[in-house]
Specification:
- The complex is a heterodimer of chains A (about 400) and B (about 300).
- Chain A has about 400 residues and is α/β, with parallel strands linked by helices.
- Helices cover about 45% and strands about 20% of the residues of chain A.
- Chain A folds into 2 domains: about 200 residues, Rossmann fold; about 150 residues, Response regulator (Rossmann fold, 3-Layer(aba) Sandwich), CATH 3.40.50.
- Chain A has a 7-stranded mixed beta sheet with strand order 8-7-9-10-11-14-15, with helices on both faces. Chain A has a 6-stranded mixed beta sheet with strand order 2-3-1-4-5-6. A two-stranded antiparallel ribbon of chain A has the order 12-13.
- By secondary structure, chain B is mainly alpha-helical.
- In chain B, strand 2 and strand 3 form a beta hairpin.
- The longest helix of chain B is centred in the N-terminal third of the chain and has 32 residues.
- The chains are: A alpha/beta (about 400), B mainly alpha (about 300).
Chain lengths: ~400, ~300
């Protein structure tokens, strides 16, 4: 009996390891592993997203978009496109492993991902050394693509986003004093906070316009101490770039502590969890993002929206879903232009991309392979993300 | 820093600290009896939050019924983990049991990820617990009053159980010497299971309070509280129940005060807890209350 029990436990343990190790590999067939790439009749595209952990909701929204795009555009050059989805577990170390797996084991032609700048940066050197092009979805930190000719992205970057939000705080909210509470373990949040600060100082002409800077770590749940400090400084606005769960919790706790100051943030907030966790507290929060369903930009936008609504009735796509869709599509277009599934040729084709018509707008890469695009301001109104304004890119 | 601000920080700290204390008791009880650090404790805590969540959100039970059921289920889960992961290797070297504990922890985390999914769920908000009260210029959540009261009440109940009941006497006997206790006619296995059950039920109370206070729940949410409460137990003197409560309060208030007085060090909040652990282990490995061997349970 004892033996049977312990044996069963061992088996379950081993299984659980197997589950975490392989579970996210949703669509990769097992057979014929070592098939040489040029001879195979499928083209593999790696998808590198957080499916578990702190950023899982963001990753799932993007995978939705990628799968949808794959459904609408299942073939290129007469070959089937196969998605190899790996989970980077919202963790920088796991992200590097996941990316390495894509290029070494699965030998993908190109990679899509990831939600989260830190995760994308963890893959940077791997795609660069393997010469496999990667198209970032919603990783907005400038360092993701900087100095890495194989990393592209279909979203704008944080210097622009930081400017948009500081302009909003200064012009629309009339704020003169801002407080910042940032997810200090996340390159995205720290970068965005810095760009916000720089521009806000310029706008107010006041070196001391940032009255408080508070930090927290990914996964923290108690923010009362930081918020109590911020409350004592009495700012006009609180800029809180960071992951959606933590942001929602901290806004909730701020309201509980009696802080009535408006909260503004970045694109990471747009997940259903932000509203579910924050409930009434996040009502009126404003953030910048990439795309609003209320403002379809291209014909591709309409196509995407129709397909999405047919696929998920009663649901509206998030901006990052549209971006992920675009990331897939831009790779397909590049493969078409290159006429081959060879990674280096795809990278060259991506570099030559001009006026790509995506669901979330037209993409033209700047010299650092970042998309130059307009930003959208959204707010939470009656428990829904609601479109507010469009801000054009700075030329 | 004004007095009001300080008081606000202090209440924040006490409310966090009493949560730590509640969970730390479970660690300390198991250690007291088996000399085993039950690394799955944080994950049992996590499971309790999910049990309560499903009770209220999915099955629409009234909160008190759902919470009670969650506490009982968690107790059963604790016993199950003990029976499957620890009991079969009770005679094995300590290190094997420790590894088994880590295995049980990973198992629970991964099972939760597979079954419940990796996306955060929102713990139901119950007005009675979450509403805010103004005391002067200090804003306090009802929970902040309730958690310390519940912690102290459970502590008193537990001390009574250990010192004045037959099962408690059995627990004390087992903690001193398993072999001798067995010779004296004590059902050692039952006593150990009972300890795990009680410890896990305390973790469940802590878990439910945690869910009410921090309503976002994830399969990995038990890891950091688990480690922090382990540290709290060590600070208090692992094996000592009162010590675990003191340790919890010291850690909770200490963390909040670190941020309050040295805001630029906020990012090192978790590091602070571990540094405290190292310091305690270096200079007072028995913790602040750990000297009186007789009280160990």
């Amino acid at each position: 009996m004892k033996k049977a029990l312990s044996l069963a436990l061992v088996v379950v343990l081993v299984l659980s390891l197997g589950l975490t190790g392989c579970a996210p590999k949703a669509e990769a067939p097992q057979g014929g592993e070592p098939a040489a790439q040029p001879a195979s009749d499928v083209i593999k595209i790696g998808v590198f997203e957080p499916m578990t952990g702190a950023n899982a909701a963001g990753g799932e929204l993007e995978v939705e978009g990628i799968k949808l795009a794959n459904k609408l555009y299942p073939e290129v050059l007469g070959k089937k496109v196969e998605l190899v989805i790996v989970d980077n577990k919202s963790d920088k170390v796991e992200a590097a492993t996941a990316a390495a797996r894509l290029v070494e084991k699965d030998k993908v032609s190109a990679i899509i991902g990831s939600w989260g700048s830190s995760l994308s940066m963890a893959a940077g050197n791997i795609v660069k050394d393997a010469k496999v092009p990667a198209v970032g979805t919603s990783c907005t930190n400038p360092l993701v693509t900087q100095g890495n000719p194989f990393y592209f992205r279909v979203c704008f970057i944080d210097p622009f986003q930081g400017t948009v939000m500081s302009n909003y705080a200064f012009n629309k909210l009339g704020a003169k004093k801002a407080a910042i509470i940032q997810e200090v373990s996340n390159d995205y949040a720290v970068g965005l906070a810095k760009f916000f600060t720089d521009n806000f100082k310029k706008l107010t002409g006041d070196e001391n316009c940032i009255v408080a800077v508070a930090n927290y770590n990914t996964g923290d749940q108690d923010f009362t101490a930081q918020l109590t400090n911020i409350k004592a400084q009495n700012p006009d606005v609180i800029f809180a770039p960071g992951n959606f769960t933590e942001s929602a919790l901290l806004i909730k706790q701020a309201r509980q502590l009696g802080i009535k100051t408006p909260f503004i943030g970045g694109d990471t907030w747009e997940t259903p969890e932000f509203i579910e966790i924050g409930q009434d507290a996040v009502e009126g929060s404003v953030f910048s993002t990439f795309f609003a369903t209320e403002k379809p930009i291209t014909t591709e936008s309409t196509k995407f929206l129709d397909a999405y609504r047919a696929e998920f009735p009663g649901k509206e796509p998030a901006a990052v879903t549209a971006l992920a869709y675009d990331a897939y599509l831009i790779i397909i277009k590049a493969i078409e232009a290159a006429g081959t599934a060879d990674s280096v040729k795809i990278q060259e084709a991506l570099l030559a991309t001009k006026d790509f018509q995506g669901a979330a707008g037209v993409v033209n890469f700047d010299e650092n392979r970042n998309a130059v695009k307009s930003a959208v301001l959204k707010t939470v109104k009656e428990g829904k993300f609601t479109f507010m304004d469009v801000v054009e890119p700075i030329k | 820093m004004t007095l009001d601000l300080f008081l606000q920080h202090l209440t924040n700290g006490i409310s966090l600290g009493s949560l730590y204390a509640l969970i730390a008791i479970g660690y300390t009880m198991v250690y007291g009896i088996l000399r085993l650090i039950n690394f799955a404790h944080g994950d049992i805590f996590m499971m309790s939050v999910y049990f309560a969540f499903f009770g209220v959100a999915t099955f629409g039970m009234p909160w008190y019924a759902a919470f009670l059921l969650a506490i009982l289920l968690t107790g059963a889960l604790g016993i199950l983990v003990e029976r499957t992961a620890y009991k079969p290797i009770r005679e094995a070297p300590k290190i094997s049991i420790l590894i088994s504990a880590i295995g049980a922890s990973f198992l629970l985390e991964n099972l939760a990820t597979v079954i419940f999914g990796g996306r955060p769920k929102t713990f139901p908000q119950i007005e009675l617990f979450t509403k805010m009260v103004d005391v002067g210029a200090v804003r306090i959540q009802m929970l902040t009053f309730m958690i310390p009261v519940i912690t102290v009440a459970l502590l008193i109940g537990l001390l009574y159980l250990i010192n004045h009941t037959k099962s408690g006497m059995a627990m004390r006997a087992v903690s001193k010497d398993i072999e001798t206790a067995r010779l004296m006619g004590i059902d050692v296995n039952r006593t150990i299971s009972f300890t795990f059950g009680i410890g896990s039920m305390l973790a469940a109370v802590g878990g439910i309070m945690w869910g009410l206070k921090f309503p976002s729940i994830l399969p990995l949410m038990g890891v950091i509280p688990g480690l922090k409460c382990f540290i709290a137990a060590v600070i208090g003197g692992i094996g000592n129940i009162k010590g675990a409560v003191y340790g919890g309060f010291i850690l909770g208030v200490g963390e909040i005060m670190l941020i309050a007085f040295l805001p630029e060090l906020t990012g090192y909040r978790d590091a602070f807890a571990f540094i405290l652990l190292i310091v305690i282990l270096l200079f007072r490995p028995t913790g602040i209350m750990g000297e009186k061997i007789s009280e160990k349970v």
